Description:
GO terms for molecular function: N-acylglucosamine 2-epimerase activity. This is N-acylglucosamine 2-epimerase. By secondary structure, this protein is mainly α. The chain has two domains: 54-178, Glycosyltransferase; 184-409, Glycosyltransferase (Alpha/alpha barrel), CATH 1.50.10.10. The chain has helices at residues 3-14, 22-44, 70-86, 91-107, 132-148, 152-168, 190-201, 203-206, 208-226, 255-272, 275-292, 321-338, 341-357, 390-403; strands at residues 56-57, 63-65, 68-69, 118-119, 125-127, 187-188, 227-228, 233-234, 237-238, 252-253, 304-305, 319-320, 369-370, 376-378. Strands 3-4-5 form a three-stranded antiparallel sheet. A three-stranded antiparallel sheet has the order 12-13-14. A hairpin with a 5-residue loop joins strand 1 and strand 2 (63-65). Helix 3 (70-86) packs parallel to helix 5 (132-148), helix 5 runs parallel beside helix 7 (190-201) and helix 10 runs antiparallel to helix 11.
Amino acid sequence: MTADERNVDLVAETMPASEGTPAYYAPLYRRELLESVLPFWLKYSKDEQHGGYFTCLGRDGKVYDTDKFMWLQGREVWCFSYMYNNVQKNDSWLNMALHGAEFMEKHGRDAEGNWYFSLTAEGKPLVQPYNIFSDCFAAMAFASLDKAIPADRYKEIAVTTFENIIRRQHNWKGIYNKAYPGTRPLKSFSLPMILCNLSLELEHIIGTARVNELAPFVISEVMDVFYKQEQGLILENVHPNGDFSNSFEGRLINPGHTIEAMWFIMDLGKRMNDAALIKKACDIMLHTLEYGWDKKYGGILYFMDVLGYPPQQLEWDQKLWWVHAEALVALAKGYQLTGDERCWKWFKKVHDYTWAHFRDEQYGEWFGYLNRQGEVLLDQKGGKWKGCFHIPRALYQVWKTLEGVDQLIS
């Protein structure tokens, strides 16, 4: 390379990108991840006395409850090991992941290997392992940690947990199921949705052949069984044969779940070189976003009823952090993979709403819960449901996705 060519490259690197282009947004997401969100959790979340993480953190990071929720413990182990694996070999991130993993190994499972829902600060069981998503995020956590520091015990935990999920998938609540058996059996979208992503997270352990074997099943469940072509929407619950249930649960739409699942499907479509699957996922994502967007106040509604009846969830009109974070990922990926201009227009619209309402410039990290009008409803940064996961993952995914978009549009 000549001196003139090096100078041209230097100028290109230092010139600010035009506002409204992918090159403009990518560094915003990078800075938010590295300078605001990850430092917040590193500073406030670690329990130095008993191990593991505090997730019930106030706006300023102060701990307001010490119970530990296993799915959030797993998510945080995954997050810091993932960042170590994919961003930089930062020892503070690796040590943070190891800190949580040690607590999980020591206290997290019952005698049958099922992961509890919650523990006391010291690690005593509080809530039984009724929720299979504790297992899902434990498997993700130890698979990601195994990439950082390969160890037989991490592989063993990831694999045995994954196989337990597969065994339990058709009755995953088991003895903790509140529904009376046989009257109105329904199956939930949540598990096949997460299996789309979980199988890829474990591929280096379970092998490509196993992922290839599982992928067609989860794709079919998501795109054929729960997706209803007549509405162009995905239902949260259906009868075991896929039929519609005209009930509160059967009519339920969760736009955020669908939008998140569609970027999982896009990732599988990219892996399989299936342009038709990617396009279908992108179209479903866009239609769901249009359907779920609050036309009066902006933002994405939390729950909806597919027939327009009042949803049973009283929080149906709240605007949640994870819904908007996942929408940004799906839109960035949709644009990168298809070039569909609708994705980019929606990305800018969702970005403007999200960054204006959820970010906390004073203390760092993001608020989780807004009312319908977009005002902060609860100002804590974490709790029983919000931890160190959706926001850092989304910031990373958008940053890296938009870095890979060559064509800049205004």
